[in-house]
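Help needed: design a sequence for this.
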């Protein structure tokens, strides 16, 4: 029979192992814990429910919490990756093509002498940042604080908080 200390160490090792290399069982327990927290249902009751119902409810709840276009794009990217094993390669090739096209258009603009933007009629290239950053004058303060306690007295009509005439 295991001693209590051994049981604690064993369970802790299983928990860490499930986090580092998730198994079906550790993922199921994680989903059940999430369902239990989100829907105020005792964990032992959640684990007795239909797994498909619990998993679908868990993922639907996660989708309800998605806000923002960027997050939705991440979700769609995950869906595409699940449905198409070549999705990552396609995405990489698409990005490379976009970069090549942008470089070609920029080179064409420079050769034609067109400005970066129509409002910059005489500008044909981006101004680069200065090579060397300007030096900060040595006589500038590097720390300290401002004593604004006199404002408190002015706000109180010349009386501070220390005065007992309030």
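Sure. Designed sequence:
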């Amino acid at each position: 029979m295991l001693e209590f200390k051994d049981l604690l160490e064993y369970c802790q090792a299983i928990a860490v192992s499930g986090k580092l290399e998730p198994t079906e069982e550790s993922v199921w327990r994680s989903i059940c814990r999430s369902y239990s927290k989100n829907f105020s249902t005792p964990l032992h009751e959640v684990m007795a429910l239909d797994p498909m119902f619990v998993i679908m409810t868990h993922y639907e709840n996660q989708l309800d919490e998605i806000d923002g276009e960027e997050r939705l794009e991440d979700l769609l990217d995950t869906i595409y990756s699940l449905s198409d094993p070549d999705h990552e390669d396609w995405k990489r090739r698409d990005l490379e093509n976009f970069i090549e096209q942008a470089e070609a258009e920029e080179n064409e603009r420079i050769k034609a002498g067109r400005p970066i933007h129509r409002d910059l009629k005489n500008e044909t290239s981006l101004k680069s940042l200065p090579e060397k950053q300007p030096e900060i004058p040595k006589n500038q303060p590097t720390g300290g604080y401002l004593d604004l306690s006199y404002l408190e007295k002015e706000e109180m009509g010349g009386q501070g908080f220390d005065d007992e005439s309030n």
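The chain has a mean pLDDT of 82.
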